[in-house]
Amino acid sequence: MATGRTRRKAKLGQYMQALRLRRDPLMIPERAAELALCRRETVTRLENGTKLPSLVLLGSLLSVYGASVEERAEALRLRKYAAQEPAVLEHAGDLPPKYLAFRKDESDAVTERTIDHVTVPGMLQTAGYAAVIAEAARWFNLGIGWEQRAAAERQSRQRLLSGPLRLHSLIGEAVLHNHVGGTPVMVEQLRHLLTAGAQDNVTIQVVPFSAGAWGTMTGSAIILGYDDPDDQGVVYLDYAAGGESVDNKESVAAFTALFEDALRSALTPAASAKLIKAGLRKLEA
Q1: 238 by DSSP, 3-state: which?
Q2: Helical segments of the chain, H only
Q3: DSSP assignment, residue 206?
Q4: pTM exceeds 0.90
Q5: Which of 114, 151, 172, 243 has a CB 3.0–4.6 Å from the CB of 131, allowing a cystine?
């Protein structure tokens, strides 16, 4: 079973925390642990999504919380879901824990919305482009040869686009003008953007320079959505030293609103493709 925090375990933890606070808003984890005959750390790790409880412990906590028959059934369903192994990820041993957790969250998602001001989003990077990006950040790389493994990791991640995942990417016009890796790499990358953008489940829109400030302006953001209407989703903030997932309701709602706001400044998909083609022709001239 996967160790560490996972979105599936977090859903169970959030549910159990809600039951605890409904039972008694003043019941702290220490008191719940005392009544359930377990350690405080066990309760807190369950609630923050880093520990999957045994069936016996889960039953004890449900009794402490006065759970109904229906609530017990829902808790057992969530535990069963959390106990299932997530999709096997290639290169998992190379990935930082927080990025690995994001990859697991991403493998369950049905929608992915991205905001990128400077570089092509990972889901749309060619192997050559990804390798150059990894080389530029070599001070943070994960061992010798990571540049080529990073390219392979990007390609394995992109296989999700052959499934139910729908991708909607907003990229700044600067992305088209940053000659990452030189002309050959950029020619291949822009061609790939055009090919990917023609897929039914991929939408690419460019935010032109004339839009001024848009989005966060401080880095890339990935908003993941799920088929459960009660699941608000999760946002992954990407940066060199290791990304961070944000899944509290207010922050996810804020990033979703930010994406929708930036969308109003973006060119249409057709106009975006035209701009990408113009950049490609300039490179090929």
Answers
A1: strand
A2: 7-23, 29-36, 40-47, 55-64, 69-83, 97-108, 127-136, 146-157, 174-177, 183-197, 249-263, 269-284
A3: E
A4: no
A5: 151
Q: Give per-residue pLDDT as tens, 104-157.
A: 889 889 999 999 999 999 999 999 999 898 888 777 766 666 666 777 888 888
CB neighbours of residue 49 within 10 Å: 21
CA distance 148 to 134: 8
Q: What is the CATH number of domain 92-284?
A: 3.30.870
Residue linked to tokens 């159990």: 16
| Structure tokens given for 272 | 């975006």
- CATH code, 7-83: 1.10.260.40
Strands laid side by side in the 234-238 sheet:
202-207, 166-172, 111-116, 220-225, 234-238, 244-246
| Pairing relationship of beta strands 202-207 and 166-172 according to DSSP bridges | parallel
| Domains of the chain, residue spans | 7-83, 92-284
Q: How many CB atoms lie within 10 A of CB 196?
A: 20
